[in-house]
Structures are given as C-alpha cells and as structure tokens.
Write a structure and sequence with these properties.
Length: about 120
C-alpha cells in the first residue's frame, strides 16, 4: 500500500471516529480536529473558551503536532497550565495542499501514538 493511500485511509478513519464522538456524525474539518488536539493538550476539556483562547488552543496543537518534525520544542507550562513552545526551525514555504497533507500526516501520527487508530 502506498504511503499516500495509507495516509488517506487512516485520515478518513480518524475523521469518522472523531466526528461520531464530537459532532453527531457530521464530518469534522481539519481546523476542528486541530482545535480538539489543542483542548486535549491543554487538558481542560470541560470548559468554555473565548475566541482568543480558541486561537491559542489551535496554536498549541500545531506546535505539538509539528514538534516531532523538529519545527517546535516544548518549553514550559505557565502558571495557568498552558503549554508554551519555542520555534526551533522555520517551516518551509508550502503550498496550501502541501500544508494540508503535512498537518493530516502529523495528526494521524499523533493519534497513532495514542492508539486511537492503527
């Protein structure tokens, strides 16, 4: 099975699982899944977030997802429990499609580590 085919199958399976759990079966998009990962990483799942906090949650998720690729490194948790990352290497310029594939691959790997999918 090609790497692209495997990624596509794993992505579709993951979207199904998360959509059934968090959106009554309506397919979650990439940004929604990134947001969920941010909430997971913060660890405060039963809380309402303000608009700016939602953006921060997505930033946390992106940092966490791209950490294994060497772009970010975890630094510390602040006094409110929010994780902070530092940039290790700038992301190369990517076209929208390339960026989407990178994020989907990173998300699939994140959930493979957590054994939600195989």
């Amino acid at each position: 099975m090609s790497r692209d085919t495997q990624l596509k199958e794993r992505w579709e399976k993951l979207v199904d699982i998360l959509s059934n759990q968090f959106s009554q079966g309506e397919d979650l998009d990439l940004d929604s899944i990134i947001y969920l990962i941010g909430v997971q990483e913060l660890g405060k799942v039963h809380r309402e977030f303000k608009k700016d906090e939602k953006l921060n949650l997505m930033h946390i998720a992106i940092c966490r997802l791209l950490e294994p690729y060497g772009f970010y490194e975890f630094e510390y948790f602040d006094e409110e429990g929010w994780p902070h990352y530092k940039v290790k290497e700038q992301l190369p310029p990517l076209k929208a499609g390339e960026q989407s594939v990178l994020m989907k691959e990173a998300i699939v790997n994140y959930f493979l580590e957590r054994e939600l999918i195989d």
